């Protein structure tokens, strides 16, 4: 690595990165701060960058005035279920896409890629009608089914990138020893690919956790709502109560942020490998 | 790793009694396994993505209402005509273009600069990336809520900062003023989208061999020349594809606007996709669907022109 940067350039680099870090983190700091201000100090102007006192009353009123506990639980269950099943199904299809050449493979990849460009709103009406016929409107199980479908294309592409890095010889050796193809995949390759699989799962979990428009269309009953659906209800009402709203935002952002920070290295690797080999 | 896998794969193949190689392994049993492995993914994507899309295709030519799903008369191009005749149509299309260009250009420039700054290894680089890339884990909808709060005209922090630094004298009604609302939503989107550019460009930068720079340095090339004659040409493909993907993505991305302004005031921040949401919420699935096809058409034409221009430029 050449390292002949003049001092001013290194200084500029550090300054730029520092400024960008502040700009990136500020909104997060701001919503966290708002959520911890006592209700009567939220609407203070000029605003305070460090509150006079901290309080958890916004969190308390969030849980008291709304069924936030059930929203949280619904989001966890729905995202985890869809994440696990979606990742498992994508694991199988990614394996085929990575290991075999066959006629129509390009078409399969294209069919997966195109799903990423379809505006969701074309499909919303028909989905609603289909779910009405199937009796799945307002059902969390129905939401899981749709989320599984939503996660499969991209996680197949991502997992394919990880599979390409595992030598064929591993499962071939296992199959010479008498394993079936599925047995070889399960016992030999999955353990080697664990980081990639976890990263894919987290990516899927986060996407389901954040999904709004499908959930808003398909879920009506308050106790069945996921967090984004509930937040949407909060902002549709004319007067937003910013205290509880910030508390809800913090509780929505922090879990996925922690998961993501934990897995981001692998996620980025999987995305760039899977996408560039398309 | 790749050279290792090549050697060992050949070794195993050579030891086999039957000649190996993927093509010849392709017997009935393998084909059946492949089919079984692909089937679940196929069923889900066909049933829950492609089938609704197909029905949505018909929907554009029918009169729909959420309240009466049994009667959906065929009305030909009626939905398209209704849209074109709507006075908001031009406004919405024009907004969509401003939204895409106004978001994309700053995202690209800032993302590129950050990727360049991150290219050299330094202590805590991994930590820095994990922290600064966090917006990726947050939904656009929530980002919209965060910025709606910060741009609040009565007690928003943006106004407070602008006044403390003496840039404005009185609080600015960001989201209520028709001329400023579009600026505010674009600022939020720029902030949100920089991360994706830095990730993609950083990954590409790491594939540029150092020897190229060393050779250029021996020739006495300055930093600016290295950037424009080595770095940018080498990662050109990534840049071209990232820009294309982003145009499509930003065009189809209503979340931030939906949460910040809902398309208002007076349709000043309405883009094609937020307009679709409005129609969907009114149960006007036919109009939403027709608008969806118009925007898909615009994107297809754009993609075609963009790629055609690029190949022509490469040839000359």
UniProtKB/TrEMBL annotation, chain A:
Signal peptide: none annotated. The chain crosses the membrane at residues 12-32, 71-97, 109-129, 141-163, 184-206, 247-268. It is found in: Cell membrane. Pfam families: BPD_transp_1. Keywords: Cell membrane, Membrane, Transmembrane, Transmembrane helix, Transport. It is a multi-pass membrane protein. The keyword RNA-binding does not apply. Belongs to the binding-protein-dependent transport system permease family. This is Carbohydrate ABC transporter permease. It comes from Tessaracoccus palaemonis.
UniProtKB/TrEMBL annotation, chain B:
Residues 93-306 form the ABC transmembrane type-1 domain. PROSITE patterns: ABC_TM1. The chain crosses the membrane at residues 31-51, 97-118, 130-151, 180-205, 226-251, 285-309. Residues 1-20 are annotated as: Disordered. InterPro entries: MetI-like, MetI-like_sf. CDD domains: TM_PBP2. Pfam families: BPD_transp_1 (PF00528). Keywords: Cell membrane, Membrane, Transmembrane, Transmembrane helix, Transport. Gene3D superfamilies: MetI-like. Its main location: membrane. It is a multi-pass membrane protein. It comes from the Bacteria. It is found in: Cell membrane. Belongs to the binding-protein-dependent transport system permease family. This is Sugar ABC transporter permease. It comes from Tessaracoccus lacteus.
């Amino acid at each position: 690595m050449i390292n002949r940067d003049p001092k001013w350039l290194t200084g500029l680099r550090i300054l730029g990165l520092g400024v960008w870090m502040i700009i990136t983190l500020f909104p997060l700091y701001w919503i966290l701060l708002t959520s911890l201000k006592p209700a009567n100090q939220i609407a203070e102007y000029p605003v305070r960058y460090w509150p006079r006192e901290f309080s958890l009353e916004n969190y308390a009123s969030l849980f008291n005035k709304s069924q936030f506990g059930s929203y949280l639980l619904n989001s966890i269950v729905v995202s985890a279920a869809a994440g696990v099943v979606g990742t498992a199904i994508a694991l199988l299809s990614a394996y085929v896409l990575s290991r075999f050449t066959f006629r129509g493979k390009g078409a399969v990849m294209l069919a997966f890629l195109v799903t990423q460009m379809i505006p969701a709103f074309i499909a919303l009406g028909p989905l609603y009608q289909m779910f009405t016929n199937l009796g799945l409107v307002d059902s969390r199980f129905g939401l899981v089914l749709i989320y599984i479908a939503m996660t499969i294309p991209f996680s197949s592409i991502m997992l394919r990138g990880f599979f390409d890095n595992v030598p064929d010889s591993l499962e071939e050796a296992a199959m010479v020893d008498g394993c079936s193809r599925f047995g070889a995949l399960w016992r030999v390759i999955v353990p080697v690919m664990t980081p990639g699989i976890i990263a894919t799962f987290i990516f899927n979990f986060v996407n389901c956790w954040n999904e709004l428009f499908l959930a808003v269309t398909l879920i009506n009953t308050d106790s069945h709502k996921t967090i984004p659906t509930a937040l949407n209800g909060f902002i549709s009402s004319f007067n937003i109560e910013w205290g509880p709203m910030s508390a809800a935002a913090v509780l929505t952002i922090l879990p996925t942020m922690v998961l993501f920070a934990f897995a981001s290295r692998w996620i980025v690797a999987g995305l760039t490998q899977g996408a560039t080999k398309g | 790793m790749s050279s290792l896998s090549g050697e060992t794969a050949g070794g195993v193949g050579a030891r086999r009694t039957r000649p190996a190689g993927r093509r010849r392994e392709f017997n009935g049993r393998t084909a059946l396994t492949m089919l079984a492995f692909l089937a679940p993914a196929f069923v889900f994507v066909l049933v829950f993505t492609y089938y609704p899309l197909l029905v949505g295709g018909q929907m554009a030519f029918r009169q729909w209402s959420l309240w009466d799903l049994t009667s959906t008369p065929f009305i030909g191009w009626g939905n398209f005509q209704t849209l074109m005749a709507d006075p908001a149509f031009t406004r919405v299309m024009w907004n969509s273009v401003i939204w895409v260009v106004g978001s994309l250009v700053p995202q690209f420039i800032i993302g590129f600069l950050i990727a360049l700054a991150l290219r050299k290894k330094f202590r805590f680089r991994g930590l820095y990336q994990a922290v600064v890339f966090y917006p990726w884990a947050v939904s656009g909808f929530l980002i919209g809520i965060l910025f709606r709060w910060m741009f609040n005209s009565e007690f928003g922090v943006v106004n407070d900062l602008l006044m403390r630094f003496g840039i404005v004298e009185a609080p600015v009604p960001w989201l209520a003023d028709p001329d400023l609302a579009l600026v505010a939503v674009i600022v939020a989107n720029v902030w949100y989208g920089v991360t994706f550019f830095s990730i993609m460009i950083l990954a590409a930068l790491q594939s540029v061999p150092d020897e190229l720079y060393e050779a250029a340095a021996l020739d006495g090339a300055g930093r600016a020349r290295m950037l424009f004659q080595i770095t940018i040409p080498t990662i050109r493909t990534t840049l071209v594809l990232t820009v294309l993907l982003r145009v499509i993505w930003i065009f189809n991305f209503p979340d931030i606007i939906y949460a910040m302004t809902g398309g208002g005031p007076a349709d000043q921040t309405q883009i094609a996709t937020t307009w679709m949401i409005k129609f969907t919420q009114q149960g006007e699935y036919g109009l939403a669907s027709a608008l969806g096809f118009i925007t898909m058409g615009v994107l297809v034409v754009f993609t075609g022109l963009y790629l055609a221009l690029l190949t022509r430029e490469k040839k000359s």
